[in-house]
Amino acid sequence: MDTQAELAQRFDRSRGRLRDVAYRMLGSADEAEDAVQEAWLRASRAGAEGVTNLNAWLTKIVSRICLDMLRSQRRRGEEFADLAELDKLAPPDPATDPADEAVLADSVGLALLVVLDTLAPAERVAFVLHDLFAVPFEEIAEIVERSTAATKKLASRARQRVHGTAVVSAADFTRRREVVDAFLAASRAGDLEGLLAVLAPDVVRRSDVSTRPGEELEIRGAHRLTQETLANSGRAHFARPILVDGALAIAVAPLGRLRLVLRLTIDDDRITAIEVIGEPARLRGLELALPEGA
Q1: N or C end of the chain: smaller count of CB under 10 Å?
Q2: Which CATH number goes with the domain that contains 278?
């Protein structure tokens, strides 16, 4: 490759894939775009003379940039000034620009972004590159500056954390998943009867945060909880099943940024208790993983 113009042309053709790689590593559309721009600056300064595999070379550049960014600023941990802001967010519209962060997060998987955010920087890079983009371990080893064997262990450790194991039998997990899916579907649809069908009459909801002014930290009874759920139905669009310490739960994660976790107690195919966790310190202490099929 002899000219800057040709390199720029080839880089533009690779930009979409590079942005996809960076987004999965960083979890932020703005930061991913910054990483891609920095990758172009480094590539243009270095030149591609003698480069035989341009895509691999560019992927290595943007991955190193992302790794440095992850190491220097482990998840920003932005908080909404008021958790009630969740209710003002519109669900992602697939018809809008696919580069829109809400659409991008939804397409990648909100629960996946939440779990990826729990990984150490090198683990995240190794997992994303190998498991999501099929980059050979030998190339990843150069990026994370480890041996190939050590890099395989990084990815394996990350994989075990990402894909969790439920603490109940497969049959019991399937039944619980059906209850959770029904609860989420009814919440998103504003389906009163559907909610009452999956909530036990004496269900209790306890929360460690108040998500709107005047909201009670404890609510008892299916009808009261149904009214609250319908009033907060916008949040259900950002809610996904997730494993918390091996138990099936629900994560509320607009743009893939964890805001709330709902721990569920399910008996006889009905939800009998919901514990809402919103305190940042408690959220950080949870062991999160993707449930089977996520």
Answers
A1: N
A2: 3.10.450.50
> Which one of 82-86, 181-185, 281-285 scores highest in mean pLDDT?
181-185
Among the listed residues 285, 68, 289, the one whose alpha carbon sits nearest the alpha carbon of residue 157: 289
Residue 54 has pLDDT above 50, yes or no: yes
Angle between helix 101-108 and helix 29-46 axes, rounded to 10 deg: 90
The residues facing 242 across adjacent strands are 249
Amino acid identity of residue 59, one-letter, is T
Q: Is residue 77 over pLDDT 50?
A: no
Same domain for 245 and 203? yes
The C-alpha angle with vertex 258 and arms to 215 and 294, in degrees rounded to 5, equals 120
Note whether 190 and 283 are same-domain residues.
yes
Dihedral (Cα; 245, 246, 251, 256), 10-degree rounding: 90
> DSSP states of 225-262 as a string?
HHHHHHHTGGGGGGEEEEEETTEEEEEE-GGG---EEE
* Whole-angstrom distance, CA of residue 20 vs CA of residue 208: 36
Question: Do residues 229 and 195 lie in contact, with contact meaning Cβ atoms separated by under 8 Å?
Answer: yes
Range of the domain at 270: 170-289
What's the structural domain count of the chain? 2
